[in-house]
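Can anyone check this?
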Amino acid sequence: MRSALIGLSAAVASLVFSSIAPAEAARPNVIGWVEKGKIMPWGATAKFKMDTGALTSSMHAEHIEAFEKEGEDWVRFDIELEDAETGKQIEQRFERRVIRKVKLSGAGGSDHRVTVLMNVCFGDAIFEEEFSLDDRDDLNYPVLIGRRTIEHFGVIDVTRTFTKDPTCDDDSKVYDRETLQAISEVGL
């Protein structure tokens, strides 16, 4: 009887401990409420603030000019920021196709913005994500990451910051918009 009880206890312990390994493997990527990322292909490092109150991500942009290219709406804009690695003020001009125009409402009223696709390096992967463009010069963080992007980065631990260094290179995995949408729909 005693040996049967010991055998049963060993079997239960084996099942419990073997079930921990898959749970550990399935644990989501945990990120801080502020992280460093790179704006690609420029490579400038910026502070990314995770903003669960925003659906769409937002990126600092100045001198936003609308124009038409091959029958489509485009914008050119400048991103000027303090590089989070070097502390130097840097600036780069971009041209992107307009994905959509959005009206954002908040405590300060409503605001009309355009959204564009930008590649950002987060951790060791490059993500093509949608960003609304706004002059955030007077704010602490040049990039806000909204829920649509956060779901691709991981879950937020609000007690942590700077848990991931952007380490993208030519061999980094690139997740384009279509791939990310398919992953979201499947729930991976």
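Reply from J.R.: I decoded it. The CA atoms of residues 14 and 174 lie 40 Å apart.
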